[in-house]
Write a structure and sequence with these properties.
Distance between the termini: 40 Å
Strand order of the largest sheet: 2-1-3-4-5
Largest sheet: 5 strands, parallel
Number of strands: 5
Radius of gyration: 19 Å
Length: 214
C-alpha cells in the first residue's frame, strides 16, 4: 500500500505541494460588477457557483469596476495579470466607451491591446460584444458591434456575440435606468457567456467538462 502514495511525494519524502487553482479573471464594467444588485446575484458569482457544482477547480477573480472603459482596463490589466496569473481572461468592456462616443479606432486599439496582453501572460482570452441602447441609432450600433467581431477575428479569440442577448430588449429584465440588467437577468447573461467559456475550461483541464448545469 505504501507504493500508492509515491506519486504524491516530493523527492525529499514530503507531500508534493498542491497545484494552485486555475484562475478566471473577469475584466469588465458595471455589467459584470453587478451594479444595483446584491453581490451574490451577479452573473460572475453565478459562474462561481456553477464551477463548484461541476467540480471544476477554477477560482474566479472579478476585477470589474462600474464605469470602466477599455482605456481604464488597459491600464489596470498588467498588474492584475501579475497578481493573479489567470489561465482564462474574460474581457467585457466597451459599453462605456460607446456611451461616451469615443472613436471606434481608439476602442479597437484598446481591445486589441487587452487581448494581446492576456495572451502574452499565458491566458486564454474570451471577448464579449456589447450592444448599445437603441437611441444611439441602428447604424452606429451595427458598426459598434461589428468592431468586436473584427477584433476577435483579427486576434483569433472566441467572442460572445451579444452579451445581453435576450435581455436588453426586455424592459422587465432591465433596471429603471434602462442600462443595467436586473437580478433576474443574471442567469441569462451566464447562459450567453457559458457556451463560449466552456470550451476554454475544457482546454485548461485537458478533458471534457461535464454537461451538468447548462
Amino acid at each position: 500500500m505504501i507504493g500508492l502514495w509515491l506519486p504524491a511525494l516530493a523527492l525529499g519524502g514530503e507531500p508534493a505541494p498542491a497545484s494552485p487553482a486555475p484562475v478566471i479573471l473577469v475584466l469588465g464594467d458595471s455589467l459584470s460588477a453587478g451594479y444595483g444588485l446584491d453581490p451574490r446575484q451577479g452573473w460572475v458569482r453565478l459562474l462561481e457557483e456553477r464551477l463548484r457544482e461541476l467540480g471544476l477547480p477554477h477560482r474566479v477573480v472579478n476585477a470589474s469596476i462600474s464605469g470602466e472603459t477599455t482605456a481604464g482596463g488597459r491600464t489596470r490589466l498588467p498588474a492584475l495579470l501579475v497578481q493573479h496569473q489567470p489561465t482564462l481572461l474574460v474581457i467585457e468592456l466597451g459599453a462605456n466607451d460607446g456611451l461616451r462616443g469615443l472613436g471606434f479606432g481608439v476602442i479597437r486599439d484598446n481591445l486589441t491591446a487587452l487581448i494581446q496582453s492576456g495572451r502574452k501572460s499565458g491566458a486564454q482570452v474570451l471577448l464579449s460584444a456589447i450592444r448599445l441602447p437603441p437611441n444611439y441609432g441602428a447604424a452606429y450600433n451595427d458598426v459598434f458591434q461589428a468592431m468586436f467581431q473584427e477584433v476577435a477575428q483579427a486576434e483569433g479569440v472566441p467572442l460572445v456575440p451579444d452579451f445581453l442577448a435576450g435581455i436588453a430588449e426586455d424592459r422587465n429584465l432591465m433596471q429603471a435606468d434602462g442600462l443595467h440588467p436586473t437580478a433576474q437577468a443574471q442567469p441569462l447573461i451566464l447562459a450567453n457567456v457559458w457556451p463560449l467559456l466552456e470550451p476554454l475550461l475544457v482546454a485548461s483541464q485537458g478533458e471534457a467538462a461535464p454537461d451538468k448545469g447548462r
